[in-house]
Amino acid sequence: MEVVLRGPHADARFGHIFSDRRVGMPATSLTAEPRAPESHAAAGWLASLNTRWHERALQGFMLIVLAHWGEHLAQAWQVYALNWPIPESRGMLGLWFPVLVRSEALHYGYAIVMLLGIWILRSGFTGRSRTWWTVALAIQFWHHIEHALLQVQAIAGANLLGSPVPLSIAQLWIPRVELHLIYNSLVFVPMVIAMYLHLFPSVAEARAMRCSCAFAEATAA
Fold first, then answer.
1. What is the distance between the alpha carbons of residues 106 and 175, in angstroms, rounded to a whole number?
2. In the Cβ-directed half-sphere of 87, how many Cα atoms lie within 13 Å?
3. CA–CA distance, 128 with 147 (Å, rounded to integer)
4. What's the predicted TM-score (pTM) here?
């Protein structure tokens, strides 16, 4: 049943019933609560990726990384073991879909995916593992700059130093196939070290972890 208070002194007579100071309850607002900003939802999603979903997110991300590694290793095998011409050495998927190798946009897109993946999942790491993961992030940032330079040349239709193909800075000294094997190794090695330290944390690191990634009991280091 709804009780309606009328009269000029209704608030004064019954105000103590609704007063949060008297009854120790939060004040009740008759207006609708404002909706949480979208930025709060995004923050909650990122927080979940680095806490309860961190283990699964890392597993999915590493599958993408390993698949990309497989393409580079297949290309290296074609160049050095099978002695194929470099334009014909297109990895595994590139044999059926040559655009995957020729398109600078796809290469740059993968560099962005790597950069975002490392950055988004970084806060889930603690201690030494975060340090190594940050090293991978810094190297991948430069790697993505190199790919951005290649993409700009492809869009502009003008290559550095009059080269017949788009040219990155480090490519001035190191051929492209070898260069990208080096870049991917420089990013992958600190990622592997970070993952190992994350799976086998020290006692202090384990206490700071908010995810379920630890594979074994914390060590005393």
1. 20
2. 1
3. 29
4. 0.75
For residue 61, give the nearest of 132, 146, 122 by alpha carbon: 122
31 sits in which H/E element? none
Q: Which residue has the tokens 């080096």?
A: 182
Q: What single DSSP character describes residue 51? A: T
Burial bucket for residue 203 (CB in 10 Å: 0-12, 13-18, 19+): exposed
Say whether 202 sits in a helix, a strand or coil.
strand
3-state class (DSSP) for residue 218: coil
DSSP structural state of residue 162: G
C-alpha distances out from residue 1 to 4, 10, 95, 145, Å: 10, 18, 75, 68
Q: Quote the CA–CA distance of 115 and 8 in Å, as a whole number.
A: 65
Backbone phi and psi for residue 210, each to the nearest 5 degrees, phi listed first: -115, 10
Q: Which of 180, 206, 173, 157 is nearest to 73 (CA)?
A: 180
Structure tokens at 186: 């420089």
Residue 202 φ then ψ, to 5°? -75, 175
The Cα–Cα gap between 180 and 91 comes to: 13
Q: What string of pLDDT tens digits covers the 221 residues of the chain?
A: 444 444 444 444 434 433 443 334 344 444 444 544 555 666 788 899 999 999 999 999 999 999 999 888 998 899 989 999 988 888 888 788 787 777 888 889 999 999 999 999 999 999 999 999 999 999 999 999 999 999 999 999 999 888 998 999 999 999 988 998 999 999 999 999 999 999 999 999 999 999 999 986 665 55
